[in-house]
Specification:
The complex is a heterodimer. Chain A is mostly helical. Chain A has a single domain (25-78, 86-151), classed as Up-down Bundle (Ferritin), CATH 1.20.1260. Chain A is 67% helix and 0% strand. Chain A starts with a helix and ends with a helix. Chain B is mainly alpha-helical. Chain B has a single domain (2-126), classed as Ferritin, core subunit, four-helix bundle (Ferritin), CATH 1.20.1260. Chain B is built from four helices and no strands. Chain B has helices spanning 2-28, 31-57, 78-100, 105-126. The radius of gyration of chain B is 15 Å and the shape is globular. The mean pLDDT of chain B is 96. The interface between A and B is medium-sized, with 28 and 28 residues.
Chain lengths: 153, 140
């Protein structure tokens, strides 16, 4: 009787305390990239507003919406426990040399953001997909606002 | 499939309401604004027909338009007509947001694209952007 019990016990493995942490799910990886993308957009809006104060009435509300996007996306990061939500800017492009160039640059950045956000829909949970779609819709309106502002110069 | 059909029916109901609502909007507006309203009215008719085709393709009976719809507020002048147009677009955006929750890549992309169109129309009428078009304020 003792022998089979020993075998059974020895087959049980305790927790491997030094093993690697669980890998981040594709959905979380996508979410973390979305967080970084918002940081990058806010960075360029900050630079644009600082360099061209005349654009502030147009750009500040759009930046505020990106800050709201960032807050919502960051709030959705729930795994893995203790994972540092990215807070750094990874892309710091040179700012356009004129107001018009900056508007074109921001418009292109928003268009690219919409396109990328659309690729995140597939595989996302229903609620996260809705957040992505809503942010993409918001960014699509930013494109129109920047277009109108560029045309009004 | 049931969820897909229900979400598509929701979007179709919103498009039916939009077609009705733009009739009211267009009747009050004039000039350039009326032309814009007419263009949006036509776009909602096209969207309605697209949704009808999608539902029919799924073997469902598309929800019919109501003979009349209660307006959320009285439309008495150009300003209230433009407010109604913005409200219509916000409601259409909400309806397509429900469709985004369906677990079908094709429908998600379709609905997200439709949200961008209606959110842009809402901005055109209201002059103000939103951080989270379609999402209830409590979630945003």
């Amino acid at each position: 009787m003792t022998f089979p019990l020993f075998l059974a016990l020895s087959a049980c493995k305790g927790p491997a305390v030094l093993s690697a942490p669980p890998s981040v799910s594709p959905q979380t990886q996508s979410l973390l990239r979305a967080v970084t993308a918002e940081h990058n957009l806010i960075w360029i809006y900050n630079k644009a507003i600082a360099a061209y104060s005349g654009l502030a009435p147009t750009l500040a509300p759009l930046r505020a919406e990106h800050q709201a996007h960032l807050a919502q996306l960051t709030a959705r990061v729930i795994e893995p426990p203790g994972k540092q939500v990215p807070g750094t800017v990874t892309v710091k492009p040179a700012l356009g040399a004129s107001q018009g160039a900056v508007l074109v640059q921001l418009r292109a950045a928003e268009q690219a953001a919409v396109k990328t956000m659309m690729t995140r829909l597939d595989g996302a949970s229903p609620s996260l997909a809705q957040l992505y779609a809503s942010i993409a819709a918001s960014e699509a309106t930013h494109v129109s606002v920047l277009n109108a502002r560029a045309g009004a110069r | 499939m049931t969820t897909q059909v229900a979400a598509l029916q929701g979007a179709l109901a919103a498009e039916h309401a939009a077609v009705y609502g733009y009739g009211v909007v267009g009747a009050v507006l004039g000039g350039r604004a009326q032309a814009d309203a007419r263009a949006d009215w036509t776009a909602h008719q096209v969207a309605r027909d697209t949704l009808v085709s999608m539902l029919t393709g799924l073997g469902a009976t598309p929800v019919a338009a109501s003979p009349a719809y209660a307006l959320p507020f009285a439309v008495t002048n150009a300003q209230s007509a433009e407010e109604l147009a913005a409200t219509i677009e916000n409601r259409v955006t909400q309806a397509y947001l429900a469709l985004v929750a369906v677990n079908s890549p094709t429908l998600r992309a379709f609905a997200a694209q439709a949200m961008q169109v209606s959110a842009n129309r809402a901005v055109a009428w209201s002059g103000a952007t939103q951080a989270f078009p379609g999402l209830p304020a409590t979630q945003a």
